[in-house]
UniProtKB/TrEMBL annotation:
Protein name: Putative quorum-quenching lactonase YtnP
Alphabetical UniProt keywords: Hydrolase, Metal-binding, Zinc
EC class of the enzyme, as a word: hydrolase
UniProt xrefs under InterPro entries: MBL_superfamily_lactonases, Metallo-B-lactamas, RibonucZ/Hydroxyglut_hydro
Length: 277
């Protein structure tokens, strides 16, 4: 837990999964990336789904929701998921019920970030957080609902379509304020509608990078995922966010890093940046 002004920030687990290392690190040769992220015999590496819970006297905001509970047993096995629903367990440990969450901000609509946004209840799929406004970038929603495989092939409609059906959807653009002290930053890159989330209060701040910087190893500019739809944009915006975080001494949240969910970033005289724990 850290304090960002009047916001209490907790990292809560949306689950863990196994993922192909070559996809995670893109063009980086395995001989290089495996020195910092060892893979198993199937080239899989363990990853977290680190979500952020931000609370103050007025709001309870959840950033991303992890894998949720809707995946089939076969899909759970193929992704190496553990039993249960870690996100709700961790929220309960903090004394938070789904009804208390008033905003859910989604960085993008891939299953490992928004699978927990909805859940199956008595045969129907409903929003997991019944009192929450769900915040999604306008471009991301357009792509996910376009029906074009090139744009929507990476999405699972059951994760997000019920949000509109239940009247809990809010579409946003770049630099839109969600509640006082929290705003979204439309980054593009990983998906065309990907957004980072900025929490600021009383001179301190935190940036939730989403998949612009999935792990602390991705602090290197050329280390990006193979899933990035606009690789050049990812590199450009990653540098902008890292520069901003380093200059302001803000914390950053690495959503897929098992060992370092939170850190600071510092400029380095020879390399671009350093992770400061």
């Amino acid at each position: 837990m850290i304090q960002v002004g009047n916001w209490q920030i907790d990292i809560v687990s949306g689950g863990r999964f196994m993922h192909d290392g070559g996809v995670l690190f893109g063009i980086v040769p395995k001989s290089i990336w495996q020195s910092v992220q060892p893979a198993d015999s199937q080239n899989l590496v363990p990853l977290a789904m680190n979500c952020v819970l931000a609370r103050n006297d007025s709001h309870c905001v959840l950033i991303d929701t992890g894998h949720g509970s809707k995946l089939s047993p076969l899909d759970r096995k193929s992704h190496g998921l553990l039993p249960g629903w870690p996100l709700l367990d961790e929220l309960a440990r903090l004394g938070i019920t789904p009804q208390q969450v008033d905003h859910v901000v989604l960085s993008h609509l891939h299953w490992d970030h928004c699978g927990g946004a909805t859940s199956r209840v008595n045969g129907s799929i409903q929003p997991t957080f019944p009192s929450a406004q769900y915040v999604i970038n306008r471009q991301e929603w357009a792509d996910a609902t376009s029906g074009q495989f090139e744009r929507s092939g990476g999405y699972v409609p059951a994760d997000y379509l019920p949000l509109e059906e239940y009247g809990q959807l809010r579409l946003v653009d770049h630099l839109e304020e969600i509640v006082p002290g929290i705003q979204v930053l439309h980054t593009g890159g990983h998906t065309l509608g990907h957004q980072a989330i900025l929490v600021e209060s009383e001179g301190s701040g935190l940036i939730y990078l989403g998949d612009i910087g999935p792990t602390s190893h991705h602090i290197k500019n050329l280390w990006c995922t193979s899933y990035d739809l606009d690789l050049i944009r990812t590199r450009e915006v990653k540098k902008q966010l890292f520069d901003f975080a380093a200059q302001k001494a803000y914390s950053v949240a690495w959503n897929h890093d098992i060992d370092i969910p939170l850190s600071r970033i510092a400029k380095h005289p020879k390399r671009d940046y350093l992770v400061e724990i």
